Amino acid sequence: MHSRKIRSIIIKATAFLVIASASAISGVTTWTDMEGTVTEVSALELQGTVTVTCSALWTYSRPDWTARTKVAYRGESFTASEKISVEGRDMYRLSNGAYISANPAYVTFSQSAAPSVPAPEIKTTTANLNMRTGPGTGYQIIMVIPKGAQVTASGSENGWYRVTYQGSTGWASGAYLVSPDTQAPSPAPSASATYIRTTANLNMRTGASTGYSIITTIPSGTKLESLATSGGWHKVSYNGRTGWVSGGYVSILSGYTQKVIGIPYVNQYSPVYAPMGCEGASLLMALKYKGYTSLDLKAFLDAMPKTERDPFNGFASTPYKIVSGVPEIFQSIFPAALTAFGKRYSGNVADGSGYTTAQLKAEIDKGNPVVVYVTTRNYETPVWKVYDMGPSGSVNIVDNMHVMVLTGYNSDGEYHVTDPASSRNTYWVSQVKFETAYNALRWAVVVR
């Protein structure tokens, strides 16, 4: 056992990528690289000033004597937060993230008064907020903290707070953190959003005239938000792309409103072919949007629990091909099992089965995508069939089930979905079609 001030840290020290995260106050220091040799490093917390006494001395980008980065000259001073031993020789960790030799033949060290440790305080995020490995935008993102989440702040540096959220610790900008009893400043008044509907299949171009190249063609009847106007053209976003459309082929939607969450898109057919993987692809999109995972579809589906034929307890068979069996296998994973799988990535995944459509909309209002069990791509009328589900017995289930993500709704009663099996990626579904398909089972998984 080491004392509270001294501890052993196993790090990988090579000339490859190293991500460093440290706190001079808490004394917690970790290093991680992508490959390399394991080196034993011990560290002692301190606070003081290091001054170079020789003519010139190398500094290092990490605790590795081969990682030379810049030369410091006689008389230059730095703030040190740790003294560490690397391969039997001592280094100081500097507040600027660099390292320098601690050999007294080259430097002097002046101890500072012990820093006061601020009491931890609770902060609330005012937007989806990146947690980073250090106090600045140049550091790597660890995760995205959802808007409205409460974090524990234990120190600050240059307008950034060291925060802990769901077991992860890093740095977040103080510009998006407020005390729970502090009212967030109201946004400046702005004009209401303007929405348009295309009246023909309409080219979206890179600029506001026919002289610009075509990005894509937007189908007739598509609702869009007009982001800006120029010379009778509207700037719009469609399927993740932004460009300009002619105002001669759109109509203004008076009194129209919508709420849409823009989540990252995952297709279940490409680049990974998973014709039965709509449940996993849908959950993955929602988790990625919240910053809970960066896995690709193959890795995510491989991690999903599997069963021989019981979707109540895992994915029945395989999502990578349509299988035949006697009796037939219903290839799916049902909400309770999908929720349990999602909780591996975040405790904010919840089984929303039984939710009314009003409750689904309430989740959308909070910025939470909802994985919904509906019917196949054209929202056909549910077709029921009995399947042998092994330990769960014979179950009457919607045979033409399909799973996607509910990402919005509008004042016309339509629902906005992100469909892992559709070439359209996202689209609007009429109220009758969506509610008929959803209400057959009322199965849902919410990612908050």
TrEMBL record:
Q: Which PROSITE patterns match?
A: SH3B
Is 4Fe-4S among this UniProt entry's keywords? no
Signal peptide: which range, if any?
A: 1-24
- Give a yes or no for keyword Zinc in this entry: no
Pfam families named among the record's database cross-references: Peptidase_C39_2 (PF13529), SH3_3 (PF08239)
Report keywords, A-Z.
Signal
Which residue range or ranges hold the SH3b domain?
120-181, 192-254
Q: Do you know which PANTHER family this protein is assigned to?
A: FAMILY PROTEIN, PUTATIVE-RELATED, GLYCOSYL HYDROLASE FAMILY 19 DOMAIN-CONTAINING PROTEIN HI_1415
Q: What is this protein called?
A: SH3b domain-containing protein
Q: Which organism is it from?
A: Youngiibacter fragilis 232.1
